[in-house]
Design a protein that fits this description.
This protein is α+β, with helices and mostly antiparallel strands. The chain has 15 helices and 21 strands.
């Protein structure tokens, strides 16, 4: 590794002890021996829901016929000595050094630190992997039937039903949006077809020679070369999700030359398998609108439960997942969340999507850290805000923090406008610790629309609550953006403001404001409110409503 990189980043050995006690009691240290592991976890019962979808990639199911093509696409696969989520053997990844803080944030790098250009990776040598001899007569005699679409030949012992028999068509429909996501010409994938085994009884497949004895243990699904294996699921959605998850691994291996380290491999497989399939239309990389849309999936539930248990994960810990981490279910939830966050956030999406060009590099994790080095502190703070409020329908676009240049509060005060349809918004006003300020809010805005519009004022409405406070209530936080965080961001712990508040901040920083609303429900909000900020010099008590 280049000495500049070593001196700049160093080797991460764990998460800071105080952070572990307050936010993330669990983390992964170092990298173990790279071995084969299974892929995807068991289904999880989902939690409560919200509303609008995130940006997605979609396609219409292609017809069964395919155009002629003279050139065979290149084949590549993960090496048999590598896991479903591991990189090629080599030096350990050198993540960004951990800041000694509860928030696991990092000082910004020196100006002018070079970030290497994105260079498209070359596919690995063509390979289909070890062939499995399939005798269709023997297979049929064993009670295993064959379902075929353009991109998937599926052998299954699951009884026929429209949902089961539709899996190959759904798989084929997902290939076009995968091509779109990675910038691959669909003509290059016309002749690509995986062979899958959807198993209700593994012993039946072993007896038919379709489940090789030398495969490593896996939870619910596994992919190797042109083959994928998936256990039957109770939910139609999760059955498709599991097959698509393994298909993403196969697609990336074939056309990108690899799948990357565990956090990226499993995060991308989860993200691009999270789908909406209806009337021949396929959307992938969705943010589910509610739990009923993705039964059995449970990734949001994993993050919520882990957070409540004090086991929240920061980006550096997720990026340090080792090759066997995904033998447990929880890393699937965190890997999905991190990929969905980076891909859905307007400040990070373009850089994150450029990573697949570097997938052939030994150190994709370090390449990712270089891409985000300049705003690593901001990324960590926005990640905290995301996981603390994560729910179905989370709107990353609208929830992104709005930052502005900061100035001291003028002697005669200042007036700012707050958009009811956005998350945290900087007022651009600096407040000093120990000084007392008067915040007064006015305005009328929409916070929901069902059969009627829900109108609201800055004091909120008490027919519905969010995080223990009335819906639509004006809330605030003071955050010194010039300093690394030493604990969870104040933006994860909003203070009530309402119509009026006398406020004496305990720390100096920029005043941020928003209305109290789930990030999943911002899309149907309209209007704004006006907040007057002034220095308080009368006899009213600090931090008391007027």
């Amino acid at each position: 590794m280049h000495p500049i990189l070593l001196s700049r980043f160093g080797l991460a050995v764990g998460v800071a002890a105080r952070f572990a006690a307050r936010f993330s009691r669990s983390f992964v240290v170092g990298w173990g021996l790279l071995v084969l592991v299974g892929c995807d976890g068991p289904p999880v019962t989902d939690a409560v829901s919200s509303t609008p979808p995130a940006a997605t990639v979609e396609a219409t199911a292609p017809s069964a016929s395919k155009p002629e093509r003279s050139q065979e696409p290149q084949r590549s696969e993960r090496s048999p000595s590598r896991s479903a989520g591991s990189e090629p053997a080599g030096d350990p990844v050198a993540p960004l050094p951990e800041h000694r803080s509860l928030a696991d944030l990092l000082d910004q790098p020196d100006d002018g630190y070079p970030v290497p250009p994105v260079v498209p990776s070359r596919p690995s040598p063509a390979s289909r992997g070890p062939e499995i001899a399939i005798d269709d007569g023997k297979v049929a005699a064993a009670g295993i039937r064959k379902l075929t679409s353009q991109h998937l030949k599926l052998y299954t012992d699951v009884p026929a039903s429209s949902a089961v028999d539709d899996v190959p068509a759904a798989f084929t429909a997902a290939v076009e949006p995968w091509c779109s996501y990675f910038g691959i010409d669909p003509l290059h994938v016309i002749d690509w077809q995986m062979i899958g085994f959807l198993m209700q009884d593994r012993l039946r497949f072993e007896a038919a020679g379709l489940l090789p004895a030398d495969l490593p243990p896996f939870l619910n699904g596994y992919q190797q070369g042109m083959y994928l294996w998936a256990d039957e699921q109770a939910d139609d959605y999760y059955r498709r999700h599991l097959v698509l998850h393994e298909g993403v691994h196969g697609f990336m291996s074939q056309f990108l030359g690899g799948i990357g380290p565990p956090w990226y491999a499993e995060g991308m497989a989860e993200h691009l398998a999270t789908h909406r399939w209806q009337d021949g239309q396929m959307q992938v990389a969705i943010m589910p609108r509610d739990r009923g849309e993705t039964p059995g999936w449970g990734r949001i539930r994993i993050v919520q439960d882990q957070l409540r248990a004090g086991q929240g994960m920061m980006p550096i810990s997720i990026m340090n997942y080792g090759p066997q981490a995904h033998l447990q279910n929880e890393p699937y939830g965190w890997s999905w969340a991190f990929a969905a966050f980076l891909d859905g956030h307007p400040d990070y999406r373009e850089r994150f999507r450029s990573l697949h060009h570097r997938i052939g590099e030994t150190d994709l994790t370090l390449a990712c850290q270089q891409l985000f080095a300049a705003d690593w502190i901001d990324l960590n703070e926005q990640w905290q805000i995301f996981v603390v409020d994560l729910d179905y329908g989370y709107d990353l676009q609208r929830a992104a923090v709005v930052r502005r240049p900061v100035q001291p509060l003028p002697v005669d005060g200042a007036t700012v406008s707050i958009d009811a349809s956005r998350g945290w918004q900087s007022t651009g006003i600096w407040l000093d610790a120990g000084s007392t300020y008067h915040l007064r809010a006015t305005g009328r805005y929409q916070v929901a629309q069902t059969s009627d519009i829900w109108w609201c004022e800055p004091g909120g409405i008490t027919i519905k609550y969010h995080q223990g406070q009335p819906l639509g209530l004006l809330v605030g936080a003071v955050r010194d953006e010039s300093q690394p965080l030493t604990e969870l961001s104040p933006l994860t712990r909003p203070e009530p403001v309402g119509l009026s508040r006398i406020w004496t901040p305990t720390s100096s920083g920029t005043l941020f404001l928003k209305i109290n609303e789930s990030a999943a429900d911002l899309a149907d909000n309209h209007g704004s409110l006006t907040v007057r900020i002034s220095i308080q010099d009368d006899a009213l008590s600090p931090d008391a409503p007027e």
